Structure formats: C-alpha cells, structure tokens
Amino acid sequence: MPPKRELPSKESAVFKNILKTYEHRQYKKGLKLADSILKKFPEHGETLAMKGLFLNNLQKKEEGYEYVKKGLQYDLTSHICWHVYGLLHRADKNYAEAAKCYTHALKYNKNDIHILRDFALLQTQMRQYDSLIETRTQLLQQRPTNPPFWIGLAVAYQLAGKPDKALNVLTSHEESVKDIGSKIEHSELLMYHNSLLEEMGDYKAAIEHLDKVENQVMDKRAAREKRAFFQSKLDQKDEAEKGYWNLVAENPHDVAYIKALMALKGLDDESKRADAYRFLTETYDKYPKSKALEDMVLQYAEGDKFNLKIDTVLQNALRKGIPSLFASTKKYYGNKEKLATIEKLVLGYRESLEKSGGFTPDGQTEPPTALLWTLYFIAQHYDFHTQYEKALDTINAAIDHSPTVVELYMTKARILKHQGELKQAVKIMNTARELDLQDRFVNSKCAKYMLRNNQVEEAEKTLALFTRKEVPATQDLVDMQCQWFNIEEGYAYLRQKEYGKALKRFHIIEKIYDDIYDDQFDFHTYCMRKMTLRAYVSLLRYEDHVRDHPYYLKAAKGAVESYLAIADKPSDSNGIDESGMTEAEKKKARSKARKAELKAQKTNEKKEEVPAAKKQADGTKLPVDQDPNGDKYLHTKTPLEDAMQFIKPLQQLAPNSIDTHNLGFEVYIRQSQWVLALRSLLKVTEINKEDPSLKTNTERFKKAVEAASPLDPSIQKIVDLLLAKL
C-alpha cells in the first residue's frame, strides 16, 4: 500500500463510513465526512475521489471531475479512484471511457465484486458479450451461492448466441434458484428456461419441460401458445390444432392464431384459396364479432362471394357511420376485380340513397347519415386514384349535407394537399380544428399542415394550445420526444434554407434515439432482480435495431441534405446560397452578410452574461436554449464528416433502403472517395436496378472521375472493375 493511502484507525473508520453514505445516497453527509479527513490528509487520493463523486451527484460536475483527477494524481494505483472515475464517465453516458477506467481498477483489485458487477453492466450496454461472459464467470467464482450471478451468466451466454451453454448454467443451479422471489418471478424464470430450449430448436425437450413446470407457470396463455407452437413443429397436428382452437376461443381477434390453424391444415398455400375461404367462413360464423376474421374472409373471397360479403360489410359500416371504413377497405384495391366491385357498389349506394333513401332502390330506408358517410367514402376513393376534381366535388357535397362534421374538412384538406394546394389545405384544416377546439389530434394535424406550408410560427402557436404553459411549446414537445413535430419543422426550415435551425431539429431526433439507447442501462439490473428475463432479452435485441425506424431514416435524410447544402456553399459566400445569382446580386448579398455578421458580433459583445434561467412554480430552473438558431451546426468546418454520423447507423440498420446508399453516394462523391461512391451505386442496383436515381448518379460519377486528376493505378483498376458491374 502506498504510504499516502494509509490512514490512522480513526480516519480509516471514517472512510469506511464515507463508502456507506454513498451506498445510502447520503451525499451531503458523505461530503462533510470527506472534508474532515482532507483537513488532516489533503493528499489522500481515495478521499479526494469520493469527494468528487459526492460533488458530481450534487450537480457540481466540473468540480467533481477536478477532485477525482486530483485523487488519481496522488494515488494512481488505487482501484477506488479508478472505479470512481469510471462512475463519473458512466453518469455522462461516456461508456467507452468508463470501460477503460474499470479495466484499470481491476488491474489493482481483480476480485472486487462491486467493480466486476458495474463492469458487467457496462459490457452489456456496449454489447461486448464475449467479455461479459468472462466478467460474469468471475462474479460467479467470487459468490457461487448467489443465484442472480448464475442467471446473469446464463443471460450472457444467450446474448452471445450460445443458448446451449446458457441452459447448462441455468440447469446446473436450478434447485437453488427455485426459491428466489415470488411465484411470479419463479414462473418467469421457468418460462425463460423454456425459451432457451426453443432457441436451441429442441422442441421435444421444450414441450417435455412445459409438461413438467406448467402448474408453476403463472402466464397461462403464454404457456398454451408455446405448447401449440411446439406441437406444430413436432408435427403433432391434432394436438396443436386443439390448442390453437382453445386460444381462438379466448381471443378470436388474434390473426396469428388463425394463420397458425391454416398452416396446420395446409391452407396457407395459394392453390388452396377456395378451401381456405371455406374454413375462414365457417370460423367467422362461430365468431361473428371478430374483425380480424372478417378481414381474412374478404382477402380470400373471390367473384360473387366477395361481392356479397363486401356489400354486407360496406352497408353495415356506412349505416353505423364508421369514419375509418376506407382505410380498412383500400387494402383490397390491389386486386382489380375487387376494386371494380367496391367502386360499383359505393357509386350505386350514392345514386340509390339520393333517389330513394336506401342502399338499393327497393331496400329499406336508411338514416340520413348513410348518404353522408357514403359521400365521405367516395371522396377518399377518388383521392386515392388522384381524381382530385371529382374528390373535391364529392367532399363538398358531403359538407353541404352536414357542415359540422370535422372529418369532412380534414379529408378536404388532404385532397387539396395531394393536389398541391398547400395554402388552401391549411385553411380548410384550420376550419376543422376550430369545429372542435378540444381535439388534440385535429390540432396536431393542423399544425403539421402549417409546417408543410412553412408556417412555422403559426404551427408553434397552434401546438401551444395543448402544451404546458410554463415552458415554450417547442421545448415541451422536445421533452415529450414528439418526433413528428421536430422532423416536420426541420424540413420546413430546410425548404427555407435555414440550415442551422433545420439541423438543430434533426439533431434533436438523434438525441431522442441516444436517450432510448441510454435508458436501457437501468434495466440491466432491474430485469435481473425482477426475473423478467424474456422481456429483457427481447428489449436488448430491439435496441440493437431501434434506429431502423422510419422516423430516424427521415430525420437522417434531412440532416444529410442540410450538411450537403452547407458543404456545397462557396467558402467566400458567408453562408449565402449564391446559386442562380448574377455577379452583382452575389456582391450585394455578400456585403449584406458581412454587415449582419458585424452587427451580430457587437450584439454578442454586449451580451457577455448568459441570460438567467427562469424558475418554475416549484423553484426548479428552466433550461435556457443557448443556441436557438443552431449556429454551431451551421458553422461546422466538417459538414461531410458530420453527415456521415447519420449515414453510418443507416448503413448497418437500414441496408435495404435506397435512400441510405444514395445519401452515402452524395457524401463520398464530394469527398472524392470513388470506390465507396461506386459501392453505394452497386448497393442500389442490388435493391432495385430500375430506380431512376441510379442512371443519374452513374452519369454524375463518370463525369466526376473524368474531371478529377488521374487516379492512382490501383484505385483506377478497382473503379473500372466496379463500373463494369453496373
């Protein structure tokens, strides 16, 4: 032990108490105790590190880091100092640096159970599963009687793709594990055991295990689902069919059960459509309230059978006034015969309702609203087929019939939007909003239309009607992780060439996905403790692909377009887009930009102090936006490198999207990375050879290579080989 680390017995006892105060989150008390030691021993590294940890948890981050670093200077071989430094990095979501600190800590105390446990959590977060297995094994060797450590090792093996080894670990200690927690927790552990057998593909063992433990399983439906699934895999068709029929009786709205039954009967083959229709019709007769079954019957019905069934479905829905009828019916439009049938029926309904008041000339009289919802359906039908004039005439007829129905105005606005009349669409959508000022959905739709028309301020004011009053509407929507708003506002600014503000919105989306990734950290301990292991593994696997969500793709595309626009600006243009300007206009714009820059500098000099943060009713300070215009993004010196930060996740998680590779191409061709640019084009050909962007980008590439200086012979050879594949 280094001389400076040794403490007298009295101070040593105080230091042990400091460690306890941290465990009990008594940070202020711990700080006082640390100061009492540092008065006598100001160079005691471990106490300095603990003081830094307390300060960091008391929202004094910079001061906390200073003390921890000072502690390391005085005692570089202390595992406590390195552990504390790792905790600070972990709190800042800097997982790579935290991992380095834990590695150093374990050099000086390889058997410390607290460091090993924290290191295991970090390795799970960083998906370092092979290293995680080693750490979990060490933990188990330290405490072989601790059941959670056995379970942790089993999960580590499963995450590393070794469910057989996970099962060996779990079964070797299952007797001691069975007394953990409540019946529900034990039930979850048993079902986790069963899921490992399923993952191994050993369905016979899985069903035998279910037979053995089913009485102890609390999640009865999950057990029944698994049993039926395993029986189907083992070709025990009669037993599996019986199991799925029982599940259908419980929940006839679950399509998965119906499809499983059809697969067992061999009715999922396209050649067995008639038999499948017969089976579905018989099942629907048993469960006539199931919309899922009704939908499947219509999918498999053909000819007169479809005509009769869709006639009944449409009349019932129009009679009841179901606004979502068109949305649930347009899926059949892919079949030309079904499309023609639906069109003929609804147009016939309109004619008959206007003449006789019934769906058919000799039918019963329907309520007046039947005509209203028929007109509503027909308007959407015409809009779907881009027959905008007919759609507008029909929806106007519906509005004349019932001028107070909100959905009619929303649909009219949608038709106008599709027609390209955005300004008029906003006006009509606002009319719909004013008909029901308490409807948040309509309010949001109206704001979205305003953003599409670049009316940013009006959109923010509209949304502010439903946000917290103590904070700006935009801040509240960011706090609520409202992705659609930030994406639409970002694109509104992008269209107006306000690239800084646009990038600020797109980076908010990036931060939302970073937060989703960071939020999983707490579950590494919680799920082990509560035994929700199946859900935990499912969560981790979902998190691995969370960025392939369409929202992230859209935001990434907008961010890359913004960065490309910044990169394409002439360096002497002071941020002015000079495309299409004459020399005189360019000179005038540059002069104006220089004057604006000088004025901004003077304004900034006057505002030396940061504006004071406003306080809420409870006394907490509201955050102040230090960069409302996104200047730090606008004035970046490396726009192409910044754009790649959005593209790289897409290349991993959305490799089948043409947009991903087109965006990559745009960056690579500007960086003169010819091989990478060509590879992007080849990826597009693998997805869709007929994509219109392919021909254009190929020509651009050839011209760019010709204009460039002679390439290195090795690169030229690769380029020629790749070009030959296009």
Q: What would you report as the Rg, rounded to the nearest angstrom?
A: 33 Å
**Can you identify the CATH class of the domain at 3-180?**
Mainly Alpha
Low-confidence stretches: 605-611
Q: Would you identify the CATH H-level superfamily of the domain at 3-180?
A: Tetratricopeptide repeat domain
Helix content: over 70%
What is the 3D form? globular
Q: Tell me the number of strands.
A: 0
Strand content: under 5%
CATH fold assignment of the domain at 3-180: Serine Threonine Protein Phosphatase 5, Tetratricopeptide repeat
Number of helices: 40
- What is the terminal-to-terminal distance? 67 Å
CATH architecture term of the domain at 3-180: Alpha Horseshoe
> What average pLDDT do the residues reach?
89
The SS-based structural class is mainly alpha
Largest sheet: none
Keywords: Receptor, Repeat, TPR repeat
Protein name: NMDA receptor-regulated protein 1-domain-containing protein
Pfam family, one: NatA_aux_su
Region (Disordered): 574-630
